[in-house]
What does this fold into?
Amino acid sequence: METETKRLAKINGYSNEMKEQPNPVHQPESAPVLVNRHHPWTESPEDTESRLAPVSTFADIQALDADIRLERTCLERLDALLDAVGGKNGIVVVSGYRDLAEQTEIYYSSLRENGAAYTAKFVALPGCSEHHTGLAVDVGSAAGGLDFIAPEFPDDGACGAFKARAAEFGFVQRYKAHKEYLTGISCEPWHFRYVGAPHAAIMEERDLCLEEYVEILRQERAKAGHGEASYGN
Ligand SMILES: [Zn+2]
It folds into this structure.
């Protein structure tokens, strides 16, 4: 077993260039970036990809594909969360960062295989997927079928513990059934978004989806006289 220090050192090895180019996306003092059908991800793939690391950085994380990449802090916190809930054997990373070409392929293959209604519920339009940020991860139960679009992620066992402790490590279940009218996406128990622990704690406590939360931050910032906040898109 690696020590926590060694793991962090691994990530920090990848992070050297990041220190010179601070990344506003996951800093607690900035609003988490909002990506949805009304807010496409507009950053260049080169910039986004410079912040990614492969999940195989942590040899004991199970993944559907060793090439899956996540933003480095998101990956490091995912590793810590999986350790904390004893999820390294029972939980598999099914999807992470996707570029525009990959989301386009997923979108149209789902249209062909699953039809328009299903696709509209579970697959974001190319350019409008949180997976473009590297800050979203789909996880599935190793005991389930590991369906690529909708993996099983039950409420019990390691998956239940993962969900219960996700906010502590900075993750939120992004798409909940009762927020569908705001997110435009159906309930996805498997899709977690990294926003950082301070934001995740407030979102959890006040039952806010990201659309609601960034709007509250924007209003508070405007009230405080900082003008319009920028969310990076
Ligand atoms: Zn997802």
